[in-house]
Design brief:
ABC transporter involved in vitamin B12 uptake, BtuC; 407 residues; two-stranded antiparallel sheet; globular; 2 domains; mainly alpha
Amino acid sequence: MQNIKRSIGIALWFMFLTLPFMAVRVNTIKQSVEWRWWNLAWVGIGAFFLSYLWRWALARRESQKARAEQGEENLAEATMGQRLLEDPKIFRPTLVGLAVFALIFPWIFSTYQVNIMVLALIFVVLGLGLNITVGLAGLLDLGYVAFFAVGAYTYALLDMHLGLGFWACLPLGGLAGMFFGVLLGFPILRLRGDYLAIVTLGFGSIAKIVIENWDKVLYGAAGIAGISRPGFFGMEMKLEAVTNYIYYLMIALVLVTIFVTNRLKDSRIGRAWMALREDEIACVAMGVDIAKTKLSAYALGAFWAGLIGVIFAARNTYINPNSFTFMESAIVLSIVVLGGMGSIIGVIIAALVLILMPEYLRAFSEYRMLVFGAVMVLMMIFRPQGLISNVRRKYDLKSLKPSGKNG
């Protein structure tokens, strides 16, 4: 009842504030004032329901916190998440359905839709790559787009000057990104928190400034055009066929990235990353080589960015410094945070939502960024652990009972 009274008060306050804009309209042709009371009524109704829904959600979040303190909520969430991912009756049909849909997607949708999906898959790989550095190792990186640019410019320059093809440059772009990842990692081994964020942000800004001003080598703000598309045994393909080809190539790369990331997560170095994320001091005390662990996280995260940078350049056939701004780094970091730190499936879902939602809300072009921002704010308030939180592994040590009788 208290929430209803407060929501009514907020609705009346919004009606009072919007009265001059929503209810009053001056008709300059007839020189009269028109009163649109229905607009004001809709403002009041909308404000009431939004306020009531907001208060209900806050109350529900508080109740979840209380249950989490007793261990009930975390147990229920972990059980549901494990069942979704491990129960064959749920996991296998879902996986088969997604595989079939992914295979037939280019044949049931237009080239424009396929092109948008390719862009979304590019950000899926970027998110999985940054998930190694941020999600698993806990090392904040605000300049991740710099490694993305390194891969793209590596392919563009090698294709222009040496005539190397796409498949030859694909691993070279990844290795170039890895090299710069190690180069960035060495000076910041001792940095943490805000200082680490500032240095990585500066690295991304420096990369963009160098690209814009090094005209003789990187062609500056004019960019590089005429980059070769991926080839298939020398066959000439039209734009639609090339788009479908890149789409299937991205599907394969996403699967490889998921496999490699999952294996790294369960490996010795992956456990070292997670130990570093939880407590660096305890990690050092347990004998983990911090320098090796941090450098490997930066190098492997940058490798995937460089790899996908090659595909990005081949897809667009043109790159310039405006393709590698801080906004791209912020979007990739948002994908990792919203998906769930260290969660592979969460990062994939978040990437698809954050990239596809603005595109499919173009019909509401005046409000789509408002909806986009509101969704992110609501996620941070009501689901701060991400869409799919990473379930901690627990080991129960059962006491060993003697099998024989003591004689």
